[in-house]
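Much of our argument rests on the idea that a fold can be written as discrete symbols. In the encoding step, the backbone of a single protein was reduced to a row of integers, each denoting a local shape. We regard such an encoding as a compact summary of how the chain folds. The record that follows shows the chain in one-letter code together with its fold in token form:
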Amino acid sequence: MEQRIPLHLISENSNNHRNRSSNGEKRNKCVRYIVGCVTITSIFGLIILLLMLSITIIMIVINICYHDKYYCSIEHRLSLCFNC
């Protein structure tokens, strides 16, 4: 008492499965592309951020090393403003 499945139903199901898998592969490629672009952009952003931070730290270190305790670079500008 086995029931037999008609062959045309089997072939339709296998074709639908193939179409679904190809759509899934297209989606996976698109998702991979988007994730790759976002990752590369984030890495470039981090590199630029680290460069800016390192330049700032270098400027602070140079200022600490070569700072004259008796000279204030803004003092003459302040005195000019208050004399007006």
